[in-house]
Each structure stands twice: as structure tokens, then as C-alpha cells.
Amino acid sequence: MTASPRFKGSDSSPPGARPFLKWAGGKTQLLHAIEPRLPPGLADGTITRYVEPFVGSGAVFFFLNRRFPLKECYLYDINEELVILYQVVKRDVAGLIDHATALAGEYAGASETERNDLFYRVRERFNRARAAIDPADYEDAWVERAAQLLFLNKTCFNGLFRVNSRGEFNVPFGKYKNPAICNGAALEAASKALANAEVRLGDSAACAEVVDEGTFVYFDPPYRPLNATSSFTSYAKNGFSDADQTRLAELFASLDRRGAKLMLSNSDPCNHDPCDRFFDDLYGAWTIERVPARRSINCRGDRRGTVAELIIRNYD
Ligand SMILES: C[S@@+](CC[C@H](N)C(=O)[O-])C[C@H]1O[C@@H](n2cnc3c(N)ncnc32)[C@H](O)[C@@H]1O
Fold it and tell me: Following DSSP, what letter does each residue of 223-274 receive, concatenated?
């Protein structure tokens, strides 16, 4: 897919680490709108702690880390495999690159049919090993698993992460000709960027443990589906319901009372139903803006395009 000229170069920040995964809802396309709305404390050094409760591929974390001298970052996600991969990137990037390079080499040297077979073999191995993995306890076996996730992410259909009711990764093969499966330099840069970050497995609510008045929090929860058939929210076994969105608004209110600077983005339900004021009602006490954004992952190519995104802040 080609980027529309409007958004080209929207990320003009200094060189450095960037997301190493394709991720549904990844925010690289929204950085042009996020940047001018960041709290001034990031630039003047009064904010040194950054918290991201729904980190995904970390587009905003990597951007802020390139731009500002953040002292400590706390990144959360409920997706076990994603957090395992982050921990491995941080702790054993060389081992990860070794394993991923081997998989990438196998893919590059294979015919179309062999690539298809390789994909399903890796997926099968990944799913079979799952029962033996404890996502709370780092071990060497994580390194191979992390490389498998990287491989699956770059070679599966649209870079989606979806699991079935048994928790098995079930996205089909993506048939890409030249996927960039392992970019060693990019992974090494990400590993360095993660030196000041802790990546924690957990529900977004857990972030309350590290938020104080000198903290900036960026919330990017799963999209509220644009329509009944939209399946963007299948990142994990459990989706993110309207009740979860309401629970999150309560967390936003409680962290606001602590004096933290808060930003939250979500899809704008008014894109499809101008009468749907769900987020306007939930976040009515704060600044709500509608900005143009491009959807980069959609199961249906014809549903990609420019839509409005909401950016909500508790500061000017
Ligand atoms: C819209 S994506 C975030 C994308 C991210 N900003 C990026 O640039 O890639 C939402 C993320 O929230 C995670 N998630 C879903 N439910 C969650 C929960 N209850 N607590 C924490 N993370 C959750 C998903 O696994 C997914 O990675």
C-alpha cells in the first residue's frame, strides 16, 4: 500500500528506534497529530516519566524516546506473546537476531509452495510450545518463540495477531514476496531504546501503580468497532467492550486527579453514525479533538482510507 502524500513524512523525528512489528492500530500514521498536542513538560524536562498502557508496536513510545530525554518508561500490554517479544528484544537481541535470521534465510531460499509450508510449520511449532511457556518467568526458550512471532507477524496475512478460543495463533499465510522478516539494525536500535523501559504484561489498569504528577500517559486502547462486522479488536482472547471503554474513562479520571498529563486516542464513532456520541459523553470533561487519520490494517482493503480519529487530552 502506498502512503497518501498528505501523511508522507509525518514522522520527521531524528533517526533511532522505530516499531519492529506490523500491528493493527499502530500509530505511526497519527504521529503528525499527536506531536503538536504533546504536553510542554516533555520538552522543558518537567515530565520525565512516560507510561503507555496499550503499547502494541510502540509507535508513540519509540517516537517520544527519540525526541525527549525520558528517564523511565512503563509499557503495558495484555498480549502475552507481544510482551515476551519485547522482553527478548530488550534482554537478548543478539539471540533473537540469530533465530530470526535463520527463519528469514529459510523463507528467502524457498519456493512459493515451500514458503507456505514453512509458515504453517512455524505456526504449528509456535502453538504447540505455548503450554510450556510461562509468560511471567523469563527463560531462554523465549528467544526462539520471540523469533517465531516476528516471523509470523511479517509473513502472515496483513500482520494481524489473532488467536482462536484455545489461544492458538490462527492467522493464515500472507503470501508476501519480500517481507522484511529480520532487520537486525532496527532490532538493535529498539533494544537500546528499551533500556529505560519496563515492559509489563497486564491489564491497562495496572499502570496506576506508576503514574504520578510528573507522568505523561498515552492511552491507545483497541478501537471501538466501526461497525458490527469490524474485527479490529481481536488482539487477545478477550475483546475490549464498551464496558471496558467506560472502565478506562474512570481510570483516566482518577489519573487526572493525581495531576498526570493524559492523552487518549480512539476511532471516532461519528465516522459511521453522526449520532453516536459515546466518547463525547465519556470524556465530556476534557478537550476532545477530531483529526484525520489513515487506517493501515483492515481485513478488507476497500475499507482502508482516511477517517477521523479522536484525540482527548486533560491539558491545554
Ligand atoms: C490500538 S492497539 C495499540 C497500538 C499502539 N499504539 C501502536 O502504535 O502499535 C491496542 C493494544 O492494546 C492491547 N490491549 C487490549 N486489551 C488490553 C487491556 N485490557 N489492557 C492492556 N492492553 C490491552 C492490545 O493487545 C493492543 O496491542
Answer: PPPSSTT--TTTTSSS---HHHHHHHHHHHHHHHHHT-EEEEEEE-GGGT-T
